[in-house]
Amino acid sequence: MLIQAYSVERIRQAEAAAQARTGDGVLMRRAATALAQVVVARLTARLGSRPGSRLPGRSVVLLVGTGDNGGDALIAGALLRGRGLAVTAVLTDPARAHADGLARLRRAWGRVVTADDPRVAGLLAGADVVIDGLVGLAARPPLREPAASLVRLAVDSPALTVAVDLPSGLHPDTGVVSGPVFRADVTVTFGALKPGLLLADEWCGTVVSDDLGMGVGTAPGTSVRADLLALTDGAAAALLPDPGRADDKYTGGLVGVAAGSTDYPGAPVLSVGGAVCLRPGMVRYAGAQAKAVVARWPEVVAAESVERAGRVQAWVVGPGMGTDETAAATLRTVLEQDVPVLVDADGLTLLAGHRDWLDRRRAAGQVTVLTPHDREFTRVFGDLDLTDRLDAVRRAAATSGAVVLLKGHRTLVAAPDGTTWVNLTGTPWLASAGSGDVLSGVIGSLLASGLPADRAAALGAHLHGRAGERAERAGRAGAHALWEFLRG
Ligand SMILES: NC(=O)C1=CN([C@@H]2O[C@H](COP(=O)(O)OP(=O)(O)OC[C@H]3O[C@@H](n4cnc5c(N)ncnc54)[C@H](OP(=O)(O)O)[C@@H]3O)[C@@H](O)[C@H]2O)[C@@H](O)CC1
Ligand SMILES: Nc1ncnc2c1ncn2[C@@H]1O[C@H](COP(=O)(O)OP(=O)(O)O)[C@@H](O)[C@H]1O
Ligand SMILES: [K+]
């Protein structure tokens, strides 16, 4: 199964349709029930079976804003009172708090204070659970006062922190953060995952998604395609090509790597290694480092130039090839081939001055994958602002006609048709010289096996990230360590 996230707009559409079926208040009651259940389960697990670790009497603080997000928190608070917990709601604006929710909490003998109450800091410091019902789908960061101050106070609380729908201060669609953000141990989200929960997962803790019977993405007449996709290990394994009985080395995927120069002998070895470790039928190499490449990877068929390399089913071009005239000529020759081409590193720097080469491929319906890090992205797509990375990568793919993989902590992949992926694997230890070269080879192999380009890029990033995690656990440093863990 793929992980699927939906934009606020899509969730609102499903919410409206569901509300018309169920009537007022039903979805909110379901949301509050789901929230209360998660709080009870998590708090029980946290307390363990030590003496005196019973739930009744444990203290819950609700941070309550002026919208339905606060309504969810208030009704969940009333349900938690029913389990014997001590519940206090801190209201940002008593006159605008969700009326029905507030009435229910009061009837259940919950306590209510306002955000300017001097006891609030002490309440948060002594709480067992803090529930963030400040803002949800309707708000955009930064948080206004007094919500911002409440979030700052909550940061210091040792309590179990639970976000309602999403951590307040996080943009639900973009994951962009400005100002204080509620840091959650658990986020209980409704309808479906939102893109921001995947893009900025460091704020969300464990995400529990409850669709409340809304059927987001399945409503008749609406697009079933999610707005943001991510791979699980299971989905990645299902995509990985396996050779069949009838396959030979020519049908098992032939990938070519055009990389390296006299100045950069290492990059082609790393990139070819990434390709070899994915076990395609054959890897061809074209460039100035044929000897070094074959010394490390004897199975590779090497030539001095792309023209002499023979046919392949996908090319990787760019790592360590420099930006001189020879390199430009190589890039041009590769881009003229009617097979999928991945452009990385120096290839991207060159491409920045030759956007017409890309336009030609687009006009001919040829598949191109670009794999920039931020600086390369800015070189190629200078006019696109990277503050909202999701928006930037989508625009880049739409304007260039290429699949664009934007590297980073949460690598993004966008296709020209709008399909967008976020990679959830990896570790900051991957931020070391040469690890991007390995990635280019990995994706090249997957392209040669015939996977659609956006899937090949997303799968490559997923495997590369897992290899990085495993290398980190094994205490291994350096991009070449990734090979070993890609093979596993
Ligand atoms: N979708 C679903 O299926 C279901 C949705 N449900 C729940 O409804 C939630 C959405 O509720 P919602 O629409 O009432 O908006 P919500 O986000 O609570 O807050 C808006 C309030 O915040 C305020 N505000 C705005 N910006 C702000 C800022 N920067 N800093 C501070 N405050 C700010 C704004 O104030 P105003 O600008 O009007 O003064 C307004 O009053 C959703 O997240 C989920 O929890 C479930 O109950 C059932 C199923
Ligand atoms: N903070 C980070 N957390 C996780 N992965 C990262 C982080 N920074 C970079 N990476 C990953 O490390 C790799 C670096 O690639 P790149 O910058 O092209 O390196 P090089 O050009 O030296 O090979 C990319 O796969 C990128 O997604
Ligand atoms: K919230």
From TrEMBL:
Every YjeF N-terminal domain range: 11-220
UniProt domain YjeF C-terminal: residue ranges: 232-488
Keyword field contains Transmembrane: no
Residues annotated to bind K(+): N69, D132, S168
Gene3D superfamilies: 3.40.1190.20, YjeF N-terminal domain
Residue numbers binding (6S)-NADPHX: 68-72, 136-142, 165, 267, 320, 373, 437
Binding-site positions, AMP: K407, G408, H409, R410, T411, G436
Known catalytic reactions: (6R)-NADHX = (6S)-NADHX; (6S)-NADHX + ADP = AMP + phosphate + NADH + H(+); (6R)-NADPHX = (6S)-NADPHX; (6S)-NADPHX + ADP = AMP + phosphate + NADPH + H(+)
Cofactor: K(+); Mg(2+)
Entry's cofactor comment: Binds 1 potassium ion per subunit.
A Gene Ontology BP annotation from the UniProt entry: metabolite repair
EC code: 4.2.1.136, 5.1.99.6
One Gene Ontology molecular-function label: metal ion binding
Pfam families: Carb_kinase, YjeF_N
Keyword Isomerase: yes
InterPro entries named in the record: Carbohydrate_kinase_pred_CS, CARKD, Nnr, Ribokinase-like, YjeF_N_dom, YjeF_N_dom_sf
NCBIfam families in the cross-refs: yjeF_cterm (TIGR00196), yjeF_nterm (TIGR00197)
Assembly behavior: Homotetramer.
Protein's recorded name: Bifunctional NAD(P)H-hydrate repair enzyme
Species of origin: Nakamurella leprariae
